[in-house]
Amino acid sequence: MRTFNTMISLTILVFFLSTGLKAQELLVKNVHILTLDDTSVKKDQTIHIKDGLIIDFYPKSNIPVGLRELVSIDGMGGYVFPGLAEMHSHIPTTDTNDFSYIEDVMWLYLANGILNVRGMIGHPSHLELKKRIEIGEITGPRIFAAGPSLNGSSVESPEIGAKMVKEQHQAGFDHLKLHPGLDMPRFLAIANTAKEVGIKFGGHVSLDVGLENSLNNGYHSVEHIDGYIEALIVDKSRLDPQIAGPFSMLLVQEADLSKLPQLVQLTLDTKAWIAPTLTLFERFFGYIPADEFRLEEDMKYMPGIQVQQWVNQKKLLENQGVLKEENVKPYLEFRQMLLKTLYDADVPILLSSDSPQVFNVPGFSIHNEIKSMHDAGMRPLDILRSGSRNVARYFDQEGDFGVLEKNASADFVLLRGNPLEDLNQLRNISGVMLRGQWINQEKLQSELNRIEKKNIRK
C-alpha cells in the first residue's frame, strides 16, 4: 500500500513539475535557506507551503509524520532566498487584447529570479496585466503599477495636475511617476493631492522644483539618483541642458561636495528611497559604443526593431560627441560615489535597472545592476535586501512578501550556490516559487527558448 501511495505521489510530482501547476499544499525539501536577516545559512531545511503561503520550516530529519506524503520538490542542496525585483520597469503596453509581448517580458523577469516589478511608465493595460496575473490568467511577477507620466506637457495647470492624481488613484494605480518640466505650482498641486488621497509618488526631479523641494514635499523615491548633481551646482545658470548635457553629466567637476552631507541628511529625514539604475547610465550614456552592446547575448530575447531603436538612440548621442570617455567616465564614477555615500548613511535602496530600456534587457539587466551596485561598494546582503524585503517595506507590506517567514507569501528562488558568497550564483536558477506555484528550470528555459526563436533576426 505504501509503495502504491509513493507511486501516486511521484506521478503527481512529475505532472506538477512539468506543467508548473499550482499545488494546494507541498513541501520543498533538502534546501539551505537564506533569510537575509544576516549572512547566516539555515542548513538542510524543508519548507511547508499551503494555499500560496509559507506555513512552516522543518529540519530535514524532523518533518512531521502527517506531512510526509505531500507532493514534494527535492531542492538537491540548493540555496533558497526571497528573490529579486525590478523597481524601475517600463512594462510594455497594449491597446488591444494582445498581451503576448508583455507576457514575454514577464517570463524574462521570472527566468532571472525577479518576483516583483514596479512599472514606472503607466498605461491602463498595466492594471489589466496586474489583474490577469493575480487571477492566474498570466504567469508573472507581482506588479505594482505607476500611472501615466505627470510632466510639464501632460500637466497643463495645477488644477489638471490635481485632477490627474485623483483619477489615477481612483483607477487603481499604486504609484505616481513624475517626469521633468514641472514648475512649483503644478508640482505642489500633484504632491499635495497625492498626500491627500494617499498614493506614493516620485520619479525624476524637475529643474524648476529641485531636489530639496521634491524631498520636502513628499517624494517617496528618487529615480536615477536624479537631482543630486543639480543641487550641488552653485551657478544654476550652468544647468542649461545645452551646457550641462544629459542629466548634467558634464558638470560633475563643478559640484560643491561640501553640500552633499546636508542633502544626504535631508534624504534620510524625509524617508525617501533611492532607485539607482546605475546600469542604464553605464549602457545608454556610457562610452562603450552601441555597436558593442547590440552584439551582447541577451539582445537575442528582444525584437530586432527594438534593439535597432536602442542603437539609434545611443548613436545620436555618440555622433554629437557627448559620450566621449573623458566626459562620461567621471560622471559614472560620480554616480557610484553618490550611491555609496547614500548607502553608507542608511538611505534605503531599491533594486532597479530601468528595463526594457536602451540595452537593458528585462531580467538580465538586473544582474548588470547588481554588479554595478557591488562595484560601488554595497554588500551582497544589502543588495539582495534591496530586491526583496525593501520592496515590501516601500509599499508598507513588510512581512507579506520578500521574506522567508511563516505566513508570508510563498515567493522564493532556488539557486545552485550561495549568492552571499558569489553574486554570480544569482544566474544559476533551479526554479522559482511564485505565490505557491513552482516553476522549474526546464520551464523557465523553454520560455527563454521560445522567446529567442520568436525574435530570430530574418
Automatic annotation (TrEMBL):
One of the Pfam families matching this protein, by short name: Amidohydro_1
Span of domain Amidohydrolase-related: 79-438
Record-level Gene Ontology MF annotations: hydrolase activity, acting on carbon-nitrogen (but not peptide) bonds
InterPro entries: Amidohydro-rel, Metal-dep_hydrolase_composite, Metal_Hydrolase, Metallo-dep_Hydrolase
Protein name, per record: Amidohydrolase-related domain-containing protein
Organism: Cecembia lonarensis (strain CCUG 58316 / KCTC 22772 / LW9)
Lineage per the UniProt record: Bacteria, Pseudomonadati, Bacteroidota, Cytophagia, Cytophagales
